[in-house]
Amino acid sequence: MNETNILYSKEGLNFEKISKNNYNLNFNVSNKNIILEKIIDINLIKLIYDLNNDIYEKIIIDKLNENESKVVILIKNLFEDLGFSQKFYYVHIKKIEDNNKIIFLSNSLKERPEGIPDDSEKIIIEKMTCECIILNPHEIRFNLYVTLDEKSIIPLFIEKIVSLMIFKIFKRLKQFIEKL
Hints:
Blueprint: E1 5-10, E2 13-19, E3 22-30, H1 43-51, E4 56-65, E5 68-75, E6 87-98, E7 101-108, E8 121-122, E9 125-136, E10 139-148, H2 156-179
Parallel strand pairs: 6-8
Antiparallel strand pairs: 1-2, 2-3, 3-10, 4-5, 5-6, 6-7, 7-9, 9-10
């Protein structure tokens, strides 16, 4: 059954579960003062990190070329008191420009990156696609699709907490861009 389940919807951001381990976040960003297409690049990841230092502990961006990077993000151990290990993800990101879209394709890398605590656990992102649809020079529609590893089991209460965190992360990004 592929029934969409809204996990969080507020202030123009919609985070939904499409099916087991498949999620979508979508929202629009607008700013009449800047041409938004010019700021849609790998540096957005660093901006997301900078805006959310209460959630992220460390970021390492290894820029391979203009359109590809390897990125490590270590999440603060927010659930340590519940017995959960610290989490990180390590992905390869590729930027593709196609007509009125800028697309970022991400896949988990198998190896363990340096500089990550030995007792931390990798979040395996099978596939993540961020479509930035340019509606006009001053408005972009973000569609973020995330597919976790099929073996990943996410308890419902963690899913709700994580959806709230994702909402918070992208709300901050949206507000920052709209206030530039």
